[in-house]
């Protein structure tokens, strides 16, 4: 019996040293993703071997220690005494887990020492280091923090384009953006004269990034960056951002407690990362501080300066949504002049022809189908340099177009209701009895319009002959809440 027990220990510990996908899923079927993250973290400093059937096999330091313990148990009959099951003595899986947890926190202590040295080398004063560093807390062992959970569920990467766009291009955001463009007209006009950035683009970026300053984030930036630098996938990137954040605090641009922002460390009205702040932020009001967290003028001037420095072309629009003719299926990112696009029968989404000019335009297919297509110009690429997401860039450009004209619900609906969105809306309306079976056409026809009117009257105060864009938004918001409540 004792021999069988020791042999089973040896086999299990040997399996635990092999980091293949099949083994991870065999050993951790309930938490494959967390196990995968754990093994990958160990693999950063472990040797990698490529001799196991052509597949990658990684040995983590935890696995090597565990295997060594198993050898001691098998060879010596236990760590503290006799053989057999009773002879295992002081050895237990719980003790290994406690040792692993202790190693986790010891590693964080070393991380803090390294960050302190790097901050000193970067010129951060010792008083600032003494104020910031003691407040940095180690993430809990084997328990993802809120910051880490958000890092895995970014809406730009996970949400489909129609849903991302719908929840951001609400009529309230469009109307608020237009009103704020009027309120800040003097400041925005002055910025346009200096940098060549039209007010509508700054307002659109402001609206998408922080809902016009109403959602600037609530995470203390140094802690978010420390968590991601210690246990994130882009450790080197976030280490640099953490040092930059300490430099900003040291320069007294913002009080330490007020340096709050998103889970990823971006902060202020326009969600600047610390290194971007150091490179491009501008003091607009002459008070010798650049406070993009609370001061709109500093934030807007800095955003415009950033766009200009990354080669924004004044006077050029970003692009627009288009219709592709039936049977024409160009690839995503195809580049041609507008003349060539017109020759293939491509038109604006409202049916009007494209400008007959020799300007290069690139095709963007955000949902990888040809039902929703955009032609974009050089300035669209500046939005991507701001945030490397087509969802983000297309939504910012569309919001800029909407706030630049008096609010028109029909124009708004034309931008919000993509073919995919219409299909999903029709599915929900049929399911809830507002639209007849068989009328899921994918077209915004009269039957769909009447069904939305009826649904709107039952669920909102907008009970008139016009379908409001926010009613479409509310339709899907109710559905998302319903799904969440049944999980």
Q: Report the uncertain regions.
A: 16-59, 77-90
Radius of gyration: 28 Å
Summarize the biggest pleated sheet: 5 strands, antiparallel
- For the largest beta sheet, what order do the strands appear in spatially? 6-8-9-5-7
Helical region count?
23
What is the average per-residue confidence, as pLDDT, rounded to a whole number? 80
Strand composition percent: 5-15%
Distance between the termini: 45 Å
Number of strands: 9
Category by helix and strand content = alpha+beta
Principal-axis shape equals: globular
Helix content: 40-55%
What can you tell me about this protein's structure?
With 487 residues, this protein is α+β, with helices and mostly antiparallel strands. Among the domains are: 2-99, no CATH class; 107-153 and 217-266, Helicase, Ruva Protein, domain 3 (Orthogonal Bundle), CATH 1.10.8; 417-485, no CATH class. Helices cover 55% and strands 7% of the residues. The protein has helices at residues 2-16, 21-27, 32-43, 61-76, 93-121, 126-132, 146-151, 155-158, 161-166, 171-183, 185-195, 199-210, 221-231, 235-250, 274-280, 296-309, 338-343, 378-386, 390-403, 409-416, 419-431, 446-459, 469-485; strands spanning 48-52, 55-58, 219-220, 260-261, 319-323, 335-337, 347-348, 360-364, 373-376. The strands form three sheets. A five-stranded antiparallel beta sheet has the order 6-8-9-5-7. The protein has a two-stranded antiparallel sheet with strand order 1-2. α14 packs across α15 and α18 packs across α19 (390-403).
